[in-house]
Amino acid sequence: xxxxxxxxxxxxxxxxxxxxxxxxxxxxxxxxxxxxxxxxxxxxxxxxxxxxxxxxxxxxxxxxxxxxxxxxxxxxxxxxxxxxxxxxxxxxxxxxxxxxxxxxxxxxxxxxxxxxxxxxxxxxxxxxxxxxxxxxxxxxxxxxxxxxxxxxxxxxxxxxxxxxxxxxxxxxxxxxxxxxxxxxxxxxxxxxxxxxxxxxxxxxxxxxxxxxxxxxxxxxxxxxxxxxxxxxxxxxxxxxxxxxxxxxxxxxxxxxxxxxxxxxxxxxxxxxxxxxxxxxxxxxxxxxxxxxxxxxxxxxxxxxxxxxx
Length: 309
Prior knowledge:
By secondary structure, this protein is of the alpha/beta class.
């Protein structure tokens, strides 16, 4: 099975397009919207008339009336939780989780004790969904489309998770560490379908696109990185081309009540990871992710003595 995903045969919606008026006034939050794919998608939606809130480290774009910026560091689950709690998710039509990194050649650990790629690219998304999905779209006018949640990653492959080494502490390889985030993100889609039935959630596989995400592996501004980006630019679509293809998914009526669907780089529905469908693997992945999140965010017993009654 390709990492790009196998196109489904049971649902062939064709090339999805949308009436330009469908975007006007739509409120969209894009986590990771300050760079890479997220930035390209935010620009595409803003040009179509959507009101976009981008969340990320630094906004380098010029001010635009259609864009609101919220500073955030998604390598910290505590900061991610605080940002997600402050977001007025009740008023949004869609949330897009595009943020993430690639694991570096040497294992990195956050101050919260989590492998950095796992924390940034997967567990932070778990936190965002838990904090926002139950509120998403609740204060919009009645009679509109169901709220939508999109989770970027590489769903639809055949990756597995080693439950004995989720944090890649025993035998670190950057490719395996990042593969763990891929499995957890697809499991998040499946878990959200069950836990938040009022929301339509989708998994997104963009394939290979020229961005700066590989800098941690190949070296920032290195010759290897420049060569890799040049080859990717020649052989694969740009972030801007991809953004134009998937923008209709935010508003198209064909997606109503299609929660759990996964889409490839051409916005075509693809088959899920068969390993997650087997036995109780998806539930076990969800439990492992919940446990890691709780290890950081769960209230700790107070060391102060209780006051006498």
